[in-house]
Amino acid sequence: MTDAMIQVENLTRTYPSGTGTVDALSDVSFSIQPGRIAALVGRSGAGKTTLLNCIGGLDTTTSGRVIVDGTDVATLDDRARTALRRDKIAFVFQTFGLLPLLTAAENVSLPLRLRRLDPVEREERVAHYLDLVGLGAQAQQRPGELSGGQQQRVAIARALAGRPRLLIADEPTGQLDADTGASVLTLLRDVVRAEGTTAIISTHDPKIEAVADQVIRLADGRVQPHEARRGRHANPDGEPHEER
Predict the structure, then answer these.
(1) 172-193: average pLDDT
(2) Residues 190-201: pLDDT tens digits?
(3) Rounded to two decimals, what is the model's pTM?
(4) Distance, CA of 153 to CA of 141 (rounded, Å)
(5) pLDDT for 198-215, tens place per residue?
(6) Above 60 in pLDDT, residue 2?
(7) Under 8 Å between Cβ of 166 and 68
Protein backbone atom coordinates (compact mmCIF):
# COMPACT_ATOMS: atom_id res chain seq x y z
CA MET A 1 0.00 0.00 0.00
CA THR A 2 1.28 3.47 -0.91
CA ASP A 3 2.35 6.05 1.70
CA ALA A 4 1.03 8.86 -0.49
CA MET A 5 -2.04 10.80 0.59
CA ILE A 6 -3.32 10.62 -2.99
CA GLN A 7 -2.33 7.92 -5.46
CA VAL A 8 -4.02 8.03 -8.86
CA GLU A 9 -3.27 5.09 -11.13
CA ASN A 10 -4.32 4.86 -14.79
CA LEU A 11 -7.54 6.77 -14.14
CA THR A 12 -9.96 7.04 -17.04
CA ARG A 13 -13.39 8.68 -16.89
CA THR A 14 -15.61 8.27 -19.94
CA TYR A 15 -19.01 9.88 -20.52
CA PRO A 16 -21.66 9.12 -23.17
CA SER A 17 -21.70 11.63 -26.02
CA GLY A 18 -24.26 11.34 -28.79
CA THR A 19 -23.82 7.92 -30.33
CA GLY A 20 -20.37 7.40 -28.81
CA THR A 21 -18.31 8.34 -25.77
CA VAL A 22 -15.80 11.00 -24.78
CA ASP A 23 -12.84 10.58 -22.42
CA ALA A 24 -12.88 13.39 -19.86
CA LEU A 25 -9.79 11.77 -18.31
CA SER A 26 -7.49 9.29 -19.98
CA ASP A 27 -4.88 7.11 -18.21
CA VAL A 28 -4.09 9.71 -15.54
CA SER A 29 -1.44 8.78 -12.95
CA PHE A 30 0.31 10.79 -10.21
CA SER A 31 0.81 10.85 -6.45
CA ILE A 32 0.79 13.53 -3.73
CA GLN A 33 2.60 13.02 -0.45
CA PRO A 34 1.05 13.96 2.92
CA GLY A 35 1.29 17.60 3.94
CA ARG A 36 1.98 18.81 0.41
CA ILE A 37 0.18 21.40 -1.69
CA ALA A 38 -0.39 20.34 -5.31
CA ALA A 39 -1.55 22.70 -8.03
CA LEU A 40 -3.72 21.17 -10.73
CA VAL A 41 -3.41 23.47 -13.72
CA GLY A 42 -4.86 23.52 -17.19
CA ARG A 43 -7.30 25.35 -19.42
CA SER A 44 -11.05 25.14 -19.03
CA GLY A 45 -12.20 21.74 -20.28
CA ALA A 46 -8.88 20.06 -19.49
CA GLY A 47 -10.56 17.72 -17.00
CA LYS A 48 -9.56 19.39 -13.73
CA THR A 49 -12.99 19.35 -12.09
CA THR A 50 -13.69 15.79 -13.22
CA LEU A 51 -10.39 14.68 -11.68
CA LEU A 52 -11.12 16.43 -8.39
CA ASN A 53 -14.59 14.92 -8.29
CA CYS A 54 -13.14 11.44 -8.76
CA ILE A 55 -10.58 12.02 -6.00
CA GLY A 56 -13.21 13.41 -3.65
CA GLY A 57 -15.75 10.67 -4.31
CA LEU A 58 -18.24 13.01 -5.99
CA ASP A 59 -17.90 11.07 -9.24
CA THR A 60 -17.05 7.49 -10.12
CA THR A 61 -14.22 6.27 -12.31
CA THR A 62 -14.59 4.27 -15.51
CA SER A 63 -11.30 2.46 -14.86
CA GLY A 64 -8.16 2.84 -12.80
CA ARG A 65 -7.60 3.45 -9.09
CA VAL A 66 -7.90 6.49 -6.83
CA ILE A 67 -6.40 5.88 -3.39
CA VAL A 68 -6.98 8.55 -0.72
CA ASP A 69 -5.24 8.05 2.62
CA GLY A 70 -4.99 4.32 1.97
CA THR A 71 -8.58 3.85 0.75
CA ASP A 72 -9.38 3.01 -2.87
CA VAL A 73 -12.22 5.44 -3.55
CA ALA A 74 -13.14 3.66 -6.79
CA THR A 75 -14.20 0.53 -4.86
CA LEU A 76 -16.50 2.30 -2.38
CA ASP A 77 -20.28 2.31 -2.52
CA ASP A 78 -22.28 5.54 -2.07
CA ARG A 79 -22.51 5.25 1.71
CA ALA A 80 -18.78 4.61 2.12
CA ARG A 81 -17.89 7.52 -0.18
CA THR A 82 -20.14 9.78 1.87
CA ALA A 83 -18.38 8.67 5.06
CA LEU A 84 -14.97 9.30 3.46
CA ARG A 85 -15.97 12.83 2.50
CA ARG A 86 -17.41 13.48 5.94
CA ASP A 87 -14.42 12.18 7.88
CA LYS A 88 -11.35 12.89 5.75
CA ILE A 89 -12.03 15.31 2.88
CA ALA A 90 -13.13 18.94 2.71
CA PHE A 91 -14.00 21.03 -0.34
CA VAL A 92 -13.63 24.69 -1.26
CA PHE A 93 -15.35 25.90 -4.45
CA GLN A 94 -15.20 29.18 -6.36
CA THR A 95 -18.89 29.82 -5.58
CA PHE A 96 -18.24 29.94 -1.79
CA GLY A 97 -21.39 27.92 -1.00
CA LEU A 98 -22.28 29.86 2.16
CA LEU A 99 -25.86 29.91 3.47
CA PRO A 100 -27.00 33.55 3.25
CA LEU A 101 -29.23 33.54 6.33
CA LEU A 102 -26.49 32.21 8.62
CA THR A 103 -23.69 34.24 10.17
CA ALA A 104 -20.06 33.49 9.37
CA ALA A 105 -19.78 31.56 12.65
CA GLU A 106 -22.94 29.59 11.93
CA ASN A 107 -21.71 28.70 8.44
CA VAL A 108 -18.44 27.38 9.86
CA SER A 109 -20.34 25.55 12.61
CA LEU A 110 -22.88 23.84 10.35
CA PRO A 111 -20.83 20.79 9.23
CA LEU A 112 -19.65 20.31 12.81
CA ARG A 113 -23.27 20.24 13.96
CA LEU A 114 -24.06 17.64 11.32
CA ARG A 115 -21.23 15.53 12.74
CA ARG A 116 -22.71 16.06 16.24
CA LEU A 117 -19.47 17.40 17.60
CA ASP A 118 -19.53 18.32 21.28
CA PRO A 119 -20.92 21.90 21.52
CA VAL A 120 -17.99 23.23 23.55
CA GLU A 121 -15.41 21.85 21.15
CA ARG A 122 -17.51 23.00 18.21
CA GLU A 123 -17.57 26.60 19.37
CA GLU A 124 -13.85 26.50 20.14
CA ARG A 125 -13.11 25.28 16.63
CA VAL A 126 -15.34 27.90 15.04
CA ALA A 127 -13.60 30.71 16.91
CA HIS A 128 -10.14 29.24 16.20
CA TYR A 129 -10.61 28.90 12.45
CA LEU A 130 -12.30 32.26 11.99
CA ASP A 131 -9.36 33.82 13.83
CA LEU A 132 -6.98 31.79 11.68
CA VAL A 133 -8.44 33.27 8.47
CA GLY A 134 -8.51 36.77 9.98
CA LEU A 135 -12.28 37.06 10.46
CA GLY A 136 -12.76 36.70 14.20
CA ALA A 137 -14.28 40.18 14.34
CA GLN A 138 -16.76 39.33 11.57
CA ALA A 139 -18.10 36.14 13.19
CA GLN A 140 -21.64 37.51 13.53
CA GLN A 141 -21.87 39.00 10.05
CA ARG A 142 -23.83 37.30 7.28
CA PRO A 143 -22.34 36.57 3.84
CA GLY A 144 -24.12 39.53 2.25
CA GLU A 145 -22.28 41.83 4.63
CA LEU A 146 -18.87 40.42 3.63
CA SER A 147 -16.69 41.00 0.57
CA GLY A 148 -16.02 38.20 -1.89
CA GLY A 149 -12.59 37.60 -0.43
CA GLN A 150 -14.00 37.48 3.09
CA GLN A 151 -16.67 35.00 2.01
CA GLN A 152 -14.02 32.73 0.54
CA ARG A 153 -12.09 32.98 3.81
CA VAL A 154 -15.22 31.83 5.67
CA ALA A 155 -15.48 28.92 3.22
CA ILE A 156 -11.86 27.99 3.94
CA ALA A 157 -12.49 28.17 7.69
CA ARG A 158 -15.57 25.97 7.30
CA ALA A 159 -13.61 23.41 5.26
CA LEU A 160 -10.72 23.22 7.73
CA ALA A 161 -12.83 23.25 10.91
CA GLY A 162 -13.55 19.56 10.38
CA ARG A 163 -9.77 18.94 10.42
CA PRO A 164 -9.73 17.00 7.16
CA ARG A 165 -6.80 14.93 5.98
CA LEU A 166 -7.30 16.29 2.45
CA LEU A 167 -8.49 19.67 1.19
CA ILE A 168 -9.79 19.85 -2.39
CA ALA A 169 -10.14 23.37 -3.79
CA ASP A 170 -11.68 23.85 -7.24
CA GLU A 171 -10.86 27.28 -8.72
CA PRO A 172 -10.99 28.94 -5.26
CA THR A 173 -10.06 32.37 -6.65
CA GLY A 174 -12.21 32.17 -9.79
CA GLN A 175 -14.67 34.86 -8.63
CA LEU A 176 -12.11 37.16 -7.03
CA ASP A 177 -10.12 40.06 -8.45
CA ALA A 178 -6.38 39.60 -8.85
CA ASP A 179 -5.30 41.26 -5.60
CA THR A 180 -7.95 39.54 -3.49
CA GLY A 181 -7.19 36.22 -5.19
CA ALA A 182 -3.49 36.54 -4.36
CA SER A 183 -4.36 37.32 -0.75
CA VAL A 184 -6.65 34.28 -0.50
CA LEU A 185 -3.95 32.05 -2.04
CA THR A 186 -1.39 33.23 0.50
CA LEU A 187 -3.87 32.61 3.29
CA LEU A 188 -4.75 29.17 1.95
CA ARG A 189 -1.09 28.22 1.74
CA ASP A 190 -0.32 29.43 5.24
CA VAL A 191 -3.36 27.83 6.86
CA VAL A 192 -2.89 24.50 5.09
CA ARG A 193 0.76 24.40 6.16
CA ALA A 194 -0.11 25.38 9.73
CA GLU A 195 -2.68 22.58 9.92
CA GLY A 196 -0.48 19.96 8.21
CA THR A 197 -3.23 19.30 5.68
CA THR A 198 -2.65 17.89 2.20
CA ALA A 199 -4.22 20.08 -0.49
CA ILE A 200 -4.90 19.84 -4.20
CA ILE A 201 -5.95 23.12 -5.81
CA SER A 202 -7.21 23.41 -9.37
CA THR A 203 -6.87 26.59 -11.38
CA HIS A 204 -5.97 28.18 -14.68
CA ASP A 205 -4.29 30.99 -12.69
CA PRO A 206 -0.46 30.67 -12.85
CA LYS A 207 -0.19 32.28 -9.39
CA ILE A 208 -1.33 28.99 -7.85
CA GLU A 209 1.93 27.42 -9.05
CA ALA A 210 3.82 29.89 -6.86
CA VAL A 211 2.33 28.46 -3.65
CA ALA A 212 2.58 24.78 -4.60
CA ASP A 213 5.06 22.05 -3.76
CA GLN A 214 4.00 20.17 -6.88
CA VAL A 215 2.37 21.07 -10.18
CA ILE A 216 0.21 18.65 -12.16
CA ARG A 217 -0.61 19.84 -15.67
CA LEU A 218 -3.69 18.55 -17.47
CA ALA A 219 -4.48 18.98 -21.15
CA ASP A 220 -7.30 17.17 -22.95
CA GLY A 221 -7.77 14.85 -19.98
CA ARG A 222 -4.14 13.73 -19.81
CA VAL A 223 -1.30 14.58 -17.44
CA GLN A 224 1.49 16.33 -19.28
CA PRO A 225 4.94 14.69 -19.08
CA HIS A 226 6.64 17.25 -16.85
CA GLU A 227 5.47 17.42 -13.24
CA ALA A 228 7.26 20.24 -11.41
CA ARG A 229 8.43 19.89 -7.83
CA ARG A 230 10.06 22.58 -5.73
CA GLY A 231 12.26 22.86 -2.70
CA ARG A 232 11.65 26.61 -2.66
CA HIS A 233 8.48 28.49 -3.43
CA ALA A 234 7.48 31.94 -4.40
CA ASN A 235 4.73 34.00 -2.87
CA PRO A 236 1.89 34.95 -5.22
CA ASP A 237 3.58 38.34 -5.68
CA GLY A 238 6.71 36.60 -6.96
CA GLU A 239 8.93 36.87 -3.87
CA PRO A 240 10.64 33.56 -2.99
CA HIS A 241 10.30 31.95 0.41
CA GLU A 242 11.80 28.84 1.96
CA GLU A 243 9.75 25.68 2.19
CA ARG A 244 8.88 24.80 5.76
Answers:
(1) 85
(2) 888 888 899 999
(3) 0.86
(4) 13
(5) 999 998 777 778 779 999
(6) no
(7) yes
* Cα distances (Å, whole numbers) of residue 122 to 119, 143, 171, 230: 5, 20, 28, 37
Check: CB of residue 204 under 8 Å from CB of residue 42: yes
Q: Where are the domains of the chain?
A: 6-226
Q: Using alpha carbons, select from 193, 233, 214, 153 the residue that is nearest to residue 35.
A: 193
Long-range CB contacts (< 8 A, 24+ apart) of 110-119?
110/158, 111/158, 111/161, 111/162, 112/161, 112/162, 115/86, 115/162
Rg of the chain in Å (alpha carbons): 18
> Which one of 3.40.50.300, 1.10.760.10, 3.30.830.10, 2.120.10.80 gives the CATH number of domain 6-226?
3.40.50.300
- Cβ density class 106-139: b for 16+ within 10 Å, e for less: bbbbbbbeeeebeeeebeebbeebbebbebbebb
**Residue 102 pLDDT exceeds 50:** yes
